[in-house]
Amino acid sequence: MSPATEQHTTEPARAGSLRRHLGLADVTAIHVGNILGSGIFVAPAAVALSFTGASGVVPWLVGGLIATCGALVYAEAGVRLPEAGGFYVIYRRVFGEPVAFVGGWAALLVTYPASIAAIAIIFSSYLGEVVPSLAGVPLLAAGGALVLVAASNVSGLRFAAQAQRLLTGSKVLALAIVCIAAIAAGLSGAGGAHEAPAGAPPPGAASPVSSLSAILGVLVVVLWTYDGWSDINMIAGEVRRPGRVLVPAVILGSGVLFVVYLTVQAAVGLLLSPARAGASDRVLAEAVEAGLGAGSGRVVAALVVLATFGSVHGIILAASRLGYAMARDRVFFAWFGQVHPVFGTPARAIGVLSAASLFYVFASGFRDLLAFFSFTVWLFYGLTASGLILLRRRRIGDAGAWHVPGASIAPYVLILVGVAMSGSLLIENPLRSLTGLALLLAGFPIHALWRRLFPPEAANGVIGGDAAGG
To answer: I need a surface site. Which of 59, 84, 165, 379 has the fewest CB within 10 A?
Structure first.
């Protein structure tokens, strides 16, 4: 590893900067915690309907490989450019400020907060099952969770990282234990409602070949369950020796997720018939009830509460660094680029992301807005992969610790999948996709206006003084 990379220790590069406190366990917990949310509690239904027996491994394996390739792209970019801000840093360096501005604003004010709000609402709906007295105030419960998460992240990186390790470790362990217990009880006949998959092939046998469209539909659902892998380099500016941490964290986290997801799928496949699983909107809860008996579904509701809360905590921890990085470059309001003088966190950036998420919790129809950008999200994934290829060709940054076999193909896999996903979304709903693209392109004239109001010379003055001083 070069000296340039080795200098990234726990000390900040300058006053008012974020400190490098995060190690392998922290980054792995953030990576797993951001991904492991509500998706795994419903996605196994689609898999069980199209794949039975050992073939149920296939979509999780394919989806996991694609997600790992994507995460490796972002991790290598974080090694080369170990700064807070993730994809924004890559775009600014490779494609220029206008592209970085548009992508950053769309993520900071639409895709991230709307996604966080959607997860918070799922959290509140399941919290009502666990604590019935809160069932009548779901929006207040979701808002309360966001306030609590914001306070945790503002209180210091060490505290937030410890909280994330606890949340991630708890939900991974609890989910695995519940699924294994349900399988064991169901197979032994201890549960009251075990249901053998009617007409299914014996364990280990391949399933009947599903239609291509059904298989692609399952893959889309599985990739949604793995979504969140692109957050890995948002925190690169706070990782100790990022060249030695980011890549192992991706590999370790991806392995944990794959094992957990297979355990959940095994519980569903062994305890429910394909028809029953495919028709269920609470498939894991039904599988657990089939193994452990009626009433145990509330345990799954508690797991969803834990998983979604941990996901919201991790996403705000990581994504708030985007607002911080943009503010430091004065392509977002510079006031949000300050570091808290006591806690050492980008408290104002955390606040603006949390406030935007709160807005979406109480705003009706925000999911339609988020759907407009689903087409462009995959375009951005492909753009980031293209940016990494250019970083390599221009020999920008240091990648001395990059020794993952097959890592050279990761960006090309992500580009191919990104084009395929965007193309399928465009064919499926051209009006919504093109509307989202038009909204995104409208950001370029907004950038021109922004730079007229806040020229780079003024930006340099602000960052050098007020914002950097914290």
So the answer is: 165
